[in-house]
Amino acid sequence: MNHVHLIAICGTGMSALAGMFKEKGFKVTGSDQNVYPPISDILKEQGIEIRVGYKPENLADKPGLVIVGNAVSRNNPEVEALLQSKIPYLSMPQALKEFFLKGKKKIVIAGTHGKTTTSSIAAWVLEACGKDPGFLIGGIPKNFERNYKLGKGEFFVIEGDEYDTAFFDKGPKFLHYEADVAILTSVEFDHADIFKDFSQVEDAFRKFIQKIPRESKLILCGEDKNLMKLSCETTCQTETYGISKEDKRSYDWSLEKESKGNGETIFKIIHKGNILGEGVTSLLGDHNLANLLGTVAALSGLGLSIDEIKTGIKTFLGVKRRQEVVGEEKGITVVNDFAHHPTAVRETIRAFKESYPERRIWAVFEPRSNTSRRNLFEKEYCEAFREADKIIIAGVYNQNLLDDEIRFSPQRVIDTLRNNDKEAFYIEKVDDIITHLVTNLKTGDIVLIMSNGGFGGIHGKLLEALKDK
């Protein structure tokens, strides 16, 4: 078998898997109905043929194996042809396990928040220490400029996704990975399109914890009460980490912030009451310090010295679309961030407010994810935005696909914020948002744009509009 075909190849994980197969020497093709840059350009540069649309004829050259992405359903015409053809097929995590994880020490990072950043930190620290790790991550670490690497070393870092696997396997992807070390950052309700309520999310993480081998290690964020409740489900060794001052003594791993300036934080690493060293990071916010600390705990247990870990952390550049400064024009900074869950929105705004207290923070938010488009968290969003100086909420993405009774209402949230003396605006369209911003922005302002999608290209359009002002 030398030809692998991927159905729904343009997803973040699937395109990365395609690149991994190509680098391993396979002929790789794929199909998708949503083919656009940058993924399409990356695949083309790798010599991977993309067949536009899902069609039976995409399988006419009889690939030896088909990987089925979770973006396609059972009644997809190409899937129907696959099932009739008797060609072997696997899901993305099955293929990753079968072809790339055997013989590796697997570091699996899971959780509602922070798993992409934590995975990226772990991969880079291992790389900086000369360990040549493999990794597959749901974002793009700036140090690598790609979201996967085969790696010749013993370690493989995997971002463990709780989303479902494929039409023939509705369980979470992370159940396919047998972790040697697992980091769990948090458990909250999310992915309202596949989970009915929090109990289903909780059950998914419970199964993940129960599947961790006895000889492995589980690193838990001790500040998350939901996680700690689930921790009794494991038979493996566990360690906790946390940065909150009031509970610091109860964690195996903690830290103390020494000082904070614009763009840099100095911290002391503490293990069971003993100070192990002092680190420096350019990441902003307590949530990212927690992500760093979880990585320290995991990699220390795998034999890396604190000095090695600190060196890697200092040179970590962050992740694209996570607190990413996309440009500055006329003294106004434009930031792109993936935050869409209310907890992530709150922590992201807080991080910038604490790091730049003298600057006005504009929070510009697009309700785009399957959870944020629903009215489940309207109260929580009202709280999440309160530390911003100015707030703009855009129209709900694809709002016509949701009934009125379940759809998120930007106007309700804006009205609540205004009743609490916040300057907040509901502006439905991107061009109108840009007009409002250009009219009202001042030198020194930070525009924090939060969405888990492209948001109509607002970042580039705003910078161009500011340039022409």
What features would you describe in this structure?
- It contains 14 helices and 23 strands.
- With 469 residues, the protein is of the alpha/beta class.
- It has three domains: 3-91, NAD(P)-binding Rossmann-like Domain (Rossmann fold), CATH 3.40.50; 101-314, UDP-N-acetylmuramoyl-L-alanine:D-glutamate ligase (3-Layer(aba) Sandwich); 324-468, Alpha-Beta Complex (Protein-Tyrosine Phosphatase, Chain A).
- The strands form five sheets. The protein has a seven-stranded mixed sheet, sandwiched between helices.
- Strand 18 and strand 19 form a beta hairpin.
- It is globular.
- It starts with a strand and ends with a helix.
- The model has no long low-confidence stretch (mean pLDDT 93).
Give the full name of the CATH homologous superfamily of the largest domain: Mur-like, catalytic domain
Low-confidence stretches: none
Q: Roughly what fraction of the amino acids lie in strands?
A: 15-25%
Number of beta-strand segments: 23
Could you give the distance between the termini? 58 Å
Number of domains: 3
Which shape, going by the Cα principal axes?
A: globular
By CATH, the architecture of the largest domain is named 3-Layer(aba) Sandwich
CATH topology of the largest domain: UDP-N-acetylmuramoyl-L-alanine:D-glutamate ligase
Question: What value does the Rg take, in angstroms?
Answer: 22 Å
Strand order of the largest sheet: 8-7-9-6-12-13-14
Helix content: 25-40%
